[in-house]
Design goal:
Layout lengths: L17 H6 L5 E4 L6 E4 L4 H55 L5 H5 L3 H18 L5 H79 L10 H19 L8 E5 L5 H9 L17 E7 L4 E4 L6 E2 L3 H18 L11 E7 L5 E5 L15 H13 L5 E7 L9 H8 L6 E6 L1 H6 L4 H8 L10 E4 L11 H14 L1 H4 L10 H41 L8 H20 L3 H28 L5 H18 L1 H25 L9 H14 L5
Parallel strand pairs: 3-8, 3-9, 4-7, 9-10, 10-11
Antiparallel strand pairs: 1-2, 4-8, 5-6, 5-7
Membrane topology: Single-pass membrane protein
Catalytic activity: GTP + H2O = GDP + phosphate + H(+)
GO molecular function: GTP binding; GTPase activity; lipid binding; microtubule binding
Length: about 675
């Protein structure tokens, strides 16, 4: 509760508790008012009066607060009105300035026609409208032509609808006819395929007979080596040459590349007609390049380049021995902790019906290095693959697994980098049977074989089947399974796979044809390149190792002749002053003793100087006329020999001197002196 000032009714005096207020009713208090600052008695009669005084004080205070707020509002009004008036004046001034800065547009009035001209224009337009809308006007003619064209269009649409209905009615018959034609086409292809196989079998038998006759007559006449044998031997020699001297030849080869376990080795075996390579379950088997020379022969055999043993590929025991030998050779190439090697294993496979070519099977490209491999295995495989593919005349046989997603392929990116135009690449899609069993999208397979899915180009695209999951199947059984698959496959029946793109037999023929075309186009060029390389290497050898070179008789003669002529040229470059000095010194050494002993001393016996001079003159003249010329020639010739020998000895001290010709030069000089004769 509050006590109130009697003068100003202010309640801001002192706060007392309710108990004090009730217990001190009617008591006069001497307290100071905080509003009027006066000491006046505060009268509080009772509880009701105190409450009324309190309400009155609050009402009075609210009134004063409202008055103060009203006064403040009135001040704000004046400020707003003043600002509005000032802003208006300023805006009016800016408007006048902007108006004066605008350009004059009175010239528009001269261009805009007046009311009379506008009326004339409107009259002309109305007249033109009447002419166009008349019965024989332009609009009538246009409407008539448009109606005629619309009628023709409607008639054409009706005819098209009728034709479409007829086609829809006959579509069922058309599909049946197409299916029937496809079945007939497949039947004809199978018929001709069987006929071709029969003829090929007969041809192989005939060739076998001819080759056997040739071998029987081998004792009578020597049979020349075949072209593929000679070509393979050249590649073997160059392979050793490359491994020793870090060079690379550009002779054609068929390079078989692909991701690991993509079926590239199986493709090579199908072409070779025998399972000649070791096999593993998911592990790397090809650890070094294997060069396989394929040629035709009466018997199906194989042998290594550095071995005389022939393996009979028609016997399973011989095949097992061959695979074991290949595995042993591969392991011997990857010693010292390596996983792959660049050393080449060369072998020859011959048999009836085999296409002649040279193939190189490379290690499969991997994406992850396991703990059982060397750390650089992935990079080493890519380096070997790129080295072989960098040969501009190498045919790249790119193998892609058809049973896995195309996005997992690694080899296609490498092939597209090495052969971006696809001028020497043949693409092979393997495991097509598994792709069909896995219900792979047929349109995706078609894109692959049309060259529209992978970022690479190729000369041709083929689809093959290289097995049916049994590692003990023979090549003949796999070929029969392949032929049966493609004859019954939906991919062939629906036209996704073309007959010429299927089977390893078609692939083998295409690769062989491409290989020999490349050989024919590049062998002469490569021969010239090898000749130039040989000449450059021989020149470099001669310049780098002058003391270790070997020359034939003609080369020795020409070299010695050149060096002797060089010495003669150097001899001719000596100055006349030098010759005069040397010959005079040598001549005086030869005749000085004779002049003193035979001319001056006998003349000195006389006591008369005149007699001495006369005798000396007479003796010198006789000696000069009779003996001195011959002595001078002998001394000159001897000086020439000494100077020539001096130049030869001087050249021996040079670093580039080769003493192989020293004795030859001395012999030539002695023989020349012996044979020399003066003209009379």
């Amino acid at each position: 509760m509050y006590l109130f000032c009697k003068s100003c009714l202010n309640s801001e005096i002192q706060v007392i508790t309710r108990r004090h207020l009730l217990s001190n009713v009617g008591t006069n208090w001497q307290k100071r008012c905080l509003s009027c600052h006066a000491f006046r008695p505060l009268l509080v009669n009772n509880r009701k009066n105190a409450k009324n005084l309190m309400l009155y004080s609050i009402h009075k205070r609210n009134m004063f607060t409202a008055v103060r707020l009203l006064r403040s509002v009135l001040k704000i009004r004046y400020i707003i009105v003043g600002s509005a008036v000032g802003g208006g004046l300023q805006a009016s001034r800016k408007y006048e300035e902007w108006k004066e800065s605008l350009p004059k547009f009175e010239w528009i009035k001269d261009l805009v026609p007046d009311n009379g001209q506008m009326g004339a224009i409107m009259s002309n337009l109305m007249a033109m409208r009447d002419k166009l809308t008349a019965e024989d006007g332009l609009m009538s003619k246009l409407n008539a032509n448009a109606n005629q064209k619309i009628e023709l269009l409607k008639q054409w649409i009706e005819e098209a609808k009728e034709q479409q209905q007829q086609r829809d009615q006959s579509s069922g018959d058309e599909k049946a006819r197409i299916q029937r034609l496809q079945d007939e086409l497949i039947t004809v292809q199978l018929k001709y395929q069987k006929e071709i196989e029969r003829l090929e079998k007969e041809n192989r038998n005939l060739k076998k007979t001819v080759l056997l006759r040739g071998k029987q007559n081998n004792s009578v006449r020597k049979v020349k080596k075949s072209l593929i044998d000679l070509y393979s031997e050249v590649l073997d020699e160059l392979s050793d040459y490359d491994s020793n001297y870090k060079t690379q030849d550009h002779l054609p080869r068929v390079i078989v590349v692909g991701d690991q376990s993509s079926g590239k080795t199986s493709v090579l075996e199908m072409i070779a007609g025998a399972r000649i390579f070791p096999r593993g379950a998911g592990e790397m088997m090809t650890r070094s390049p294997v060069k396989v020379t394929l040629k035709e022969g009466p018997y199906h055999t194989a042998r290594f380049k550095d071995s005389s043993r022939e393996f009979d590929l028609t016997k399973q025991s011989e095949l097992a021995d061959l695979r074991r030998e290949v595995e042993i050779r591969m392991k011997s190439c990857v010693k010292n902790g390596r996983t792959v090697s660049s050393d080449v294993i060369a072998m020859t496979v011959e048999g009836p019906g085999i296409q002649r070519m040279v193939l190189v099977d490379l290690p499969g490209i991997i994406s992850t290095v396991t703990t059982e491999m060397a750390e650089d295995t992935r990079d080493a495989i890519k380096a070997i693959t790129k080295t072989y593919m960098s040969n501009p005349n190498a045919i790249i046989l790119c193998i892609q697994d058809g049973s896995v997603d195309a996005e997992r392929s690694i080899v296609t990116d490498i092939v597209s980098q090495m052969d971006p135009n696809g001028k020497r690449t043949i693409f092979v899609l393997t495991k097509v049977d598994l792709a069909e069993q896995n219900m792979t999208n047929p349109s995706r397979l078609q894109k692959i074989l049309d060259g529209k899915l992978f970022p690479m180009k190729a000369l041709g695209y083929f689809a093959v089947v290289t097995g049916r999951g049994n590692r003990d199947d023979t090549i003949q059984a796999i070929k029969e399974y392949e032929s049966q698959f493609f004859s019954n496959s939906k991919l062939c029946k629906t036209g996704i796979l073309n007959g010429s793109q299927c089977t390893t037999q078609s692939l083998s023929l295409a690769v062989s044809e491409c290989f020999w075309k490349m050989v024919k186009a590049s062998v002469e060029q490569q021969a010239d390149a090898f000749k130039a390389t040989r000449f450059n290497l021989e020149t470099e050898w001669k310049n780098s190792f002058p003391r270790l070179r070997e020359l034939d008789r003609d080369e020795l003669f020409e070299k010695a002749k050149g060096e002797i002529l060089d010495e003669i040229v150097n001899l001719s470059q000596l100055s006349p002053v030098y010759w005069e000095e040397v010959i005079s010194k040598k001549l005086w050494e030869r005749v000085g003793f004779y002049v003193f002993e035979q001319i001056y001393l006998p003349a000195a016996q006389t006591s008369d100087s005149g007699t001495f001079n006369t005798q000396v003159d007479i003796r010198l003249k006789q000696w000069a006329d009779q003996t001195l010329p011959n002595k001078s020639v002998d001394v000159g010739f001897q000086t020439l020999q000494e100077e020539f020998n001096r130049l030869i000895e001087k050249n021996k001290s040079l670093k580039e001197h080769d003493n192989i010709f020293d004795f030859l030069k001395i012999s030539v000089a002695e023989e020349s002196i012996k044979r020399h004769s003066w003209e009379t």
